[in-house]
């Protein structure tokens, strides 16, 4: 056994930690005399790839016969835990928590060399720890495994055991000082999940040219789903990456910058303030914009669309011990209702349908969710809409419904859907459908060479539904769109083939959902709706197209793996094959394709 210890001199280590410019100073350019700052900080993240031998720990964790093929076990190394996996006769060890929200991966699904998170569906390669499906940005740390005298040993870094996450190695820009500030190789319009994952993937793949992201938001990329799930979170608490990250990897972010037009022939983006930026490759990831009410009084103070952390924070502050009316039983509307139920004096939901989520989860599941809300003091006014908002001294006082009912209201939150934020592209020549969505192919390419689009603003061919063009406004899907777009900017020829996966959380209950159930004609439910412990299979003709569950983990992740493997689940199989594997843990039937 040969042991090598590498010691980097302090002077050389300091060099490694610096930006390619020698100093990570802020970049500034001027437009019409106004200074604009890039988000670059003076203290980049230290990224030393060499482990200190004192940081390493090695422990015997089990006998080789303790695990069968296809089994996982959480093992303790004294200063932290690891996930030990046996597949095809080989042992692997990786981090035991999903880097997204910390789910225990031992309760996830192991299949074909990867483990899928039981909560939100992220997938990790068991050999490398690399993230292969989303949500989340980081990969798992991978630990060394050795077999000696029938015993399994794991050698790991103490730091990795404690953090349970690993950021993949990335390239840096060769020299930002050589660039004209009004031109970039890659321009990303939008700084949500799709835009950030695109930028990170480019760097992970060794791209060392300039990358500029621009956003109308005042903040660096943040965890947008938390705006309605954790409404009092501050921007720095939900940031997807710290400021130092963008400096370290030379990803420039222009905040509060709105693109007004794109000239695809000249490859120029024109900003609202008149500034112009040339690009070589373009990603449009602008997401959507919330719909507003069209009734009288919609401009009254204390009527909100939840779009930013400031919106969410202000709603919580104003709603405490007050009367809240939420218009629309959408995901956002219902999550806001659940969050405010214990804080507000009263919460009322106004909805056109007769049950919440009917089109998405079906009537029976919708009624079960509605009952849960009613048990938590939320009142529903169904099959009606708002006709007028009334004020007193400039502030909201009452919400008048078309049914004639008048609701006392100090705060109103509007959650009646959204439209794609693509209005600035109407004269661009980029193909946009009748609803305003950007049309892309399986490689996230638009009809214009070098122009890609991703996230909530696009329709794309979904392999799961025979390549039907669909819009899937899920957080997980935006991540994958961004990755596929980046790979194809680099001419990898990678096609998207992920299974849609989403979740919502209300009153401590999480609903998980995988697949694409649009147009389902039947729902097969197993479990107890009244007890909120069930799984629902959504079928079209004889085929299962989606699944949802509450308190039935990891069934949704298991079905997602089945669908990802290209297998078809028939309605008649729901009681047998799916539940056999769920109860016994046997995933052997997952291999192969077909029904």
Automatic annotation (TrEMBL):
Record bears the keyword Ribonucleoprotein: no
GO-annotated molecular function: 2 iron, 2 sulfur cluster binding; metal ion binding; oxidoreductase activity, acting on NAD(P)H
Database matches in PROSITE patterns: RIESKE (PS51296)
Keywords annotated in UniProt: 2Fe-2S, Apoptosis, Electron transport, FAD, Flavoprotein, Iron, Iron-sulfur, Metal-binding, Mitochondrion, Oxidoreductase, Transport
Protein origin, superkingdom: Eukaryota
Statement: the UniProt record of this protein carries the keyword Transport: yes
GO terms of biological process kind: execution phase of apoptosis
SUPFAM superfamilies: FAD/NAD(P)-binding domain, FAD/NAD-linked reductases, dimerisation (C-terminal) domain, ISP domain
Domain Rieske: 59-154
Compartment(s) of residence: Mitochondrion
Gene Ontology annotations for the cellular component aspect, listed alphabetically: mitochondrion
Family of this protein: Belongs to the FAD-dependent oxidoreductase family.
Summary of the function given for this chain in its UniProt record: Induces apoptosis through a caspase dependent pathway. Reduces mitochondrial membrane potential.
Name of protein: Apoptosis-inducing factor 3
Organism: Zosterops hypoxanthus
